[in-house]
Known about the structure:
This protein has about 400 residues and is an alpha/beta fold. The chain has helices spanning about 15-25, 35-55, 70-85, 105-120, 135-140, 165-180, 200-205, 255-290, 320-325, 345-350, 355-360, 375-385; strands at about 5, 65, 95-100, 120-125, 145-150, 185-190, 210-215, 225-230, 295-300, 310-315, 330, 365, 395.
Amino acid sequence: MRSAYLDYAASSPVDPRVREAVLFVMDSLGNPSSVHAQGRAMREAVDTARESVANLLAVEPRRVFFTSGATEANNLALIGYFKRLRETVSAEKPLKLLVSVIEHSSIREVTKRLQADLGVTVEKIPVDADGVVRTDRLREMLSDDVAMVCVMWANNIIGSLQPMEESATIIREEREKRGVNGLSLVLMSDAVQALRTEQVRPSDTGVDLLSLSGHKMYGPKGVGALYVREGVELAPLLMGGGQEAGLRGGTENVPGIVALGRAADILRKEREKDRAHVGKLHARLVAGLRESDGVTVFGDSARSVPGIIYFMSSEETGDVLTLKLDSAGIAVSSGSACDSGTSKTSFVLQEIYSGPAAKQGGVRVSFGRFSTDEDIRCLIEALIAIHGAGGGMRDAGGTR
Length: 400
């Protein structure tokens, strides 16, 4: 039985070129904080990787800070920002966070801590029927006490791309209205699922804080980064030896950081090729789903990243269909890997849809650089076998 890995949104395969780049570091001695030759070599490796990530994002290297992954980066961005802000304003002063309803769990869970520990009021920005943030509502919700707006660049369940430039423009206009004496206001974005195919440039777009993850861009697990715009101050979450300019204490994960840097180099050079390849597979899968009866696809492909497709079966729950596909040798997901075991229904669909879509759940298929036509063919054939031929795909965009 041929297997097909179609769960890139949970974790992408490590590019062989990334693996090769790490081998010499694994066998090298030295701590990047040491002054001897071995330590200096490790420091140079870290600095080179920082430049690579910065080049991918088109930002200054000193504004890139390495973390253990996007979850830590998101925690550092939100908690670090509001913790530092609380040091400059009175405890009685109201502070508010606006966050889209479709954020990753590493954002959603942090909002609970912000409310409990720092007295931050959290309000959710609604999305339309395709899972895209409603900027008209964002504009209406921007009161004087809003200190941060958090909108992910691309959703990790249905792949919907968010209006980052328009959101940044709205925030810039609000800053101008407040003037120099007004409360500071920043835009934070989790760009984990966008980087594989989209040009993500926070400075050009107007994003102040941005997180990324190594294992979602053909690097290893356990490493990520946070971009912090000049002038935005964060309180560190981890105290230690002052690593990462004092923002993230602890000896650097040099092999992971080197791997992330190499992955960033390759992605910067090959992303357009990746996007074209993934786009063709995406179109083929959408067309192929028309051969499978009882399948509903969610979202609008014109406003989504290629390579993430979420659909529901009229005959099976998402969990059951995922297991049946697994038995056929096809790896997909019934939702976000980080939400596994916490909810049988996608919270994203609960926020967007009602009825069977919200109650039954569906399947997320995601693919990328190393996916093939054969992978897509195997999935289509398995779905046809499960549902039977002769049906039609229904587009869920615009339904509630």
